[in-house]
C-alpha cells in the first residue's frame, strides 16, 4: 500500500471534488449542511471546522447552520434513547 499512497490520495481528492463540486442534484450549501451534520455525528472536529468554513463562504445563515446542528443532535439522542430502551428490556 505504501507504494501507491500518492495514487490513493489522488483518488480521494477526485472523489472529494466530485462530491462537493459545483454540480449535483443538491446545491452546494445543502451538501455542506449535510456534511456538517455527518461531521458532528462522526465526532470529527476537522470535518466540522471544514464544513462550517465552507458554509460561511456560501453565506449560510446562522439559522440554517443551527438547524443542521439540531438535526445532527437528534441522531445522537435517538441512538442513546433506543440503546437504553434495548438494554433495559434485556436486563429487567
Automatic annotation (TrEMBL):
Single annotated GO MF: peroxiredoxin activity
SUPFAM superfamilies, per the entry: AhpD-like
Domain of life assignment: Bacteria
Span of the signal peptide: none
Carboxymuconolactone decarboxylase-like domain segment(s): 8-82
Record-given protein name: Carboxymuconolactone decarboxylase-like domain-containing protein
Organism of origin: Acidithiobacillus thiooxidans (Thiobacillus thiooxidans)
Organism ancestry: Bacteria, Pseudomonadati, Pseudomonadota, Acidithiobacillia, Acidithiobacillales
Amino acid at each position: 500500500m505504501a507504494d501507491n499512497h500518492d495514487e490513493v490520495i489522488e483518488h480521494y481528492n477526485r472523489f472529494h471534488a466530485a462530491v462537493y463540486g459545483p454540480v449535483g442534484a443538491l446545491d452546494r450549501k445543502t451538501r455542506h449542511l449535510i456534511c456538517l451534520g455527518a461531521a458532528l455525528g462522526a465526532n470529527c472536529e476537522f470535518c466540522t471546522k471544514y464544513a462550517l468554513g465552507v458554509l460561511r463562504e456560501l453565506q449560510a445563515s446562522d439559522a440554517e447552520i443551527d438547524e443542521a446542528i439540531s438535526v445532527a443532535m437528534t441522531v445522537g439522542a435517538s441512538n442513546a434513547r433506543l440503546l437504553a430502551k434495548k438494554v433495559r428490556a434485556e436486563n429487567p
